[in-house]
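Incident review: delayed structure delivery

Summary: a single-chain prediction request sat in the queue longer than the usual turnaround. Root cause was a stuck worker, restarted by the on-call engineer. No data loss occurred. The affected request and its eventual output are reproduced below so the record is complete for anyone auditing the incident later.

Affected input:
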Amino acid sequence: VQLVESGGGLVQPGGSLRLSCQASGWTLSDNYAAWFRQVSGKDREAVAHIWTAYGVTYYADFVKGRFTISHDKVKNTVFLQMSSLKPEDSAMYYCAAGVGAGSPLRASFYRFWGRGTQVTVS
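Output delivered after worker restart:
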């Protein structure tokens, strides 16, 4: 199973980026998929997740109204559309998927992880 993120980069404050997470060897359908982010020296934090079976989504308060998570069943890909970016959004963004025990808000819930894509807002 592989999750490969792409779409990160350098963007000015107020700008937009779209992150992609393509899965191979496993289907994202009827599962949970999420985006987390991490700044060096800090804990990984949940940004958004989606229950792909029903399209139910969750967003952390600090991204509500600015980020949108979505799932493309045909492409087996999860996206994170990020708008109105702020310098504090700068981080390594990780894709996660799979169903485990506990809460989908926690990193320990997810079985599979990508290697991350860097987002820098400056």
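Verification: The radius of gyration is 13 Å.
Action items: add queue-age alerting; document worker restart procedure.
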